[in-house]
Structure formats: structure tokens, C-alpha cells
């Protein structure tokens, strides 16, 4: 993991002190709400439906156990005893009083954490594959580049007030586990025929009201020049994007409208920075700097390759529950004799992505005992132990069970991605958590879940798509209709992983459902799959093959609170 330098540490602590001064002046009436708003947003503080919400940055998802323990302590001492892990690999608190905000920022700074640029119209937290550095299919470890991008983008003087929020994701593996085509900029680290490292660059992706898949703008940018190239992209966006309409201000709208003209403008800006701008070439990354950062991401000293070939039956018949957990929650590793273990944050009685303070402490203990003190936050809102010896898997399973982390449902219907929705978010049109809870309860039978196989179910409480509903094999979107909660259902979406096919938004199957109808509609889709699937055919493939007409017929048949033939509308 990257270890903060003295400069990094001073920077974060000075920022915390600056925020304390801003907050003090605001609470004293010296700094009006309108002036304070931009300052709190760029430090991760929102004012939500019931209370302030803090979003803590977890750069590219890597957490040290000491950091997680501090997050647990903050949840216990300042919030209501829990936090929420997000699809952007961050952590959110929902109940911290604003007058205690500066104390929290000081506590975070003590363990090299902050909320800088987790909100506001700036470059947000850089995300990557939770298996970065350990995946067998990885071509280049993206984490050193993600760290360099973090340092470049943090408080970038030109990009502090962009037209809208801006998100970057990076992967270095053959399998895209970072959903890079759904980002404002998506980066794939690769090697060319000569073995040189560079980046394939995609631009203009995003979810929200208008889902757009990013377009390839550059097939290969040498790694040394990637900051210059990104500078050109963001500078062009900052110059030409609309600022008069928040719904049309994202880069996806600009790229869609301008097409090749946008690409040409970026390439012209790239050449200008390199050859005309004073000091432009100073953005070229020196080899020594990459080597310095890369040293932080070497295999931990305590990891010692061992003979592969883990056999759960070595000492007799293995517990079937353990075998099911091995199948779903344990991933292959590039280091012989090691595995990556996902700690599921999806179980009955707990909102997807939520972890109590006690659970955070338990996960930190697991990391110390079995994973070199390191954890990852996954895109799917779970936690991951990246350095688990195969010999320790049984012990990890027992400990995970005790802490409530061992639900063997990764990739299955109840491994739900969901935003906090209307229970917390001031922007939400509908609640996500009760819908997720009802679906989890309805599909509690693990045998049934495993028979159904991989199904990505994603829930968003509004068009901002924080629950990534567009990418779900089943997507659920909360909409407002006459002041009531309604839910639109889509099928066939993909985040770009091989098993789900090329990145694509799901297709809406008909008018929205009342809240009490949603789970019945999901069960109707599942029943269609049971009846119509070919041998070995995955759920998402069956849905796409059948098309929306039979799916709408099946879900319309279970309506009981709404008319079976409602007029179509933009939101319902």
C-alpha cells in the first residue's frame, strides 16, 4: 500500500485545520451558507435529508487495518454506529452533526485519510479493480498509476470547479472489473507488441439520466505522457462543456454532441501542452517517480509463495457450507498458495454496503491476522482480503461467519448493489433499502440462489444512478410519480465484464411498479428464466434472447396495486 510521505501527511493535516477554521466561521455566522457550501463539498460534506453526510475517500479502494479501525471508531463515537461502503470504493457516514465535523476530519488525518474531492464539481476518487496487483489475468498493476493520478488530481488548480463532477477508473487486467466504459474517463493499462506500457483511453461514459458508453479516444498513450493526455481531456471539457444546465454539463453530453471535433480538440490541446505551453513537458512522468511510487505496491514482505493445490478435503469431508463459500467468496491469486477472500456486506437485516462499527473492527482484525493488515473496498460494496494463505481459508471462514461476513452469495441475486436512497439522500425519489431487504428475504434460499447462478441486481433511488441500475442484469430505478414512490425495472445491463458481455445499459420492460409490487416483478423475471433458459444459459443471456415483450407480459401479470396497462412516460 502507498505510505504517506511527510509532505502528504502535512498536506492532509493542514487541510483539516483549514476546514476547522471555515466551519468555525460558518457556525459563528461569519461565513454564509452559499460561501461555505462549496468548501464543505470539496471536503466531502453534504447536507442530506435528515443530517449531514460525510464521504471519506478510499483511494482506489485500498485500506489499512489501522484506517478501518479509525473508521469504526468514528462510526461509534460520532455517528450511529455504522458506515456505508459505496460503488466508488468510499465510505459514507449519515448522521454526524455538522458542529463535530472538524473533529472527525482531524481523526481521519491522523491515519492519512480525508474527504477531499469526494463531492463537488471536481475530479472524484480514482477507482480500480479490487483485485489489482493480485489478479491472475492482470497485465499491468494499475495501482501505481492510480496513485500518481490521485496526486495529480488532488486540488488541481485548474480543475477545482469543473462544469460537473468527473470520475476516472483504471484497470490493468484482461477482465474489466472496474467498469471503465461507464466513466468520464476510463483507462486500460496494457502493453503493446514491443512490451511497452501505455494506456488505452476511453472518454465520455456515464450513467445518470442519459446512460452513455465511453468512446475510445486513444489506442495507446505511453505511460510517461498519461498526465499530459488527461490534462488535455479535462482542459477541453472544462473549456467547452455547458455550465447553464446541470443535466447537460457532463462530458458524456459534450462528447456525444461534438464527436470527432471533441477528439480533435483534445489532440490539439495535447500537442500544445507538450510543445507550446511553458512547463508543459514537466507533466511527463519521470521513470524515477514511477519507480518510487511502485515500490509501495510490491508484494508484502510477509507473503511467501507456497506450493499451490489447496484441497478442502485434505483432512476429511469438508463442510458443504464451507465449499459453497469457497466457490463464491474466494478468488484465484497470482501468488502461488494464496487467495483473495471477499467479506460479504450483503445479508438479511443489513442494508447493502453497510457495516457496523463492530464489523469494521472485526474486518480489521481479520486483515491483521490473515491479510498483511490490508483490505480492499470492492466496486460491488463488499470488503476484500487480498493476501490470504490457502492454509488459512478454513480459519478465515469461521471468523467471517462469526462477524456476519460469510454469506456465500457473491455475484448472486442477493449480492445487491444499492445506494442509500430516500432513507438518507435528499436527491432520491424513492427508497432503495426496503426494496433490497424484501428481495433478500424473498430469495433467502441459498440452493435456489445457486441454481439461478449469476444475476447482478442493482438499485438506484433516483436518476443520479449511484446504485448503477443501468448496469444490472436487473436494474431497479426509484422514480417519483404524484408524490409517491414508484420503481422502474430494466433488464440486460452490463458493466463490461466478460460474463455479462459488452458494457450496455439495460432496457426498461414497461411502466413502473408500486413499491409493494417490485419483489413480485423480480420473482416473475426469475420464473421466466427458470422456464425458458437453455442448458447452461446465464440469466442475462436468456433475458436478452427473449426481448422485453415476454418479460413485460410476465411482470404485468403480477401487478395488483397498479393498472396492468399504464401509459408510458419518461420517468415511469
Q: What can you tell me about this protein's structure?
A:
By secondary structure, the chain is an alpha+beta fold. Helices cover 34% and strands 16% of the residues. It has 17 helices and 21 strands. The strands form four sheets. Strands 16, 17, 18, 19, 20 and 21 form a six-stranded mixed sheet that branches. A hairpin with a 5-residue loop joins strand 14 (374-377) and strand 15. Residues 53-111, 352-401 form the Nitrite/Sulfite reductase ferredoxin-like domain.
List keywords for this structure.
alpha+beta; 6-stranded mixed beta sheet; 17 helices; heme binding; 4Fe-4S; 34% helix; 572 residues; disordered C terminus; globular
Oligomeric state of the chains present here: single chain
Percent of residues in helices: 25-40%
**What's the total count of β strands?**
21
For the termini, the CA-CA separation is: 45 Å
The Cα radius of gyration reads 23 Å
What's the helix and strand layout?
Layout lengths: L5 H22 L5 H9 L3 E3 L4 E5 L5 E3 H13 L4 E4 L5 E3 L7 H10 L16 E2 L14 H11 L14 E4 L13 E7 L5 E7 L11 E8 L3 H15 L10 H8 L1 H16 L11 H8 L25 H10 E2 L6 E6 L10 E3 H14 L3 E4 L5 E7 L3 H11 L13 E2 L14 H10 L3 H7 L4 E4 L13 E8 L2 E8 L15 E2 L4 E2 L3 H15 L6 H8 L1 H9 L16
Parallel strand pairs: 6-7, 7-8, 16-17, 17-18
Antiparallel strand pairs: 1-2, 2-5, 3-14, 4-5, 4-13, 8-9, 9-10, 11-12, 12-15, 14-15, 18-19, 19-20, 19-21
Helix pairs in contact: 1-2, 1-4, 3-11, 6-8, 11-12, 15-17
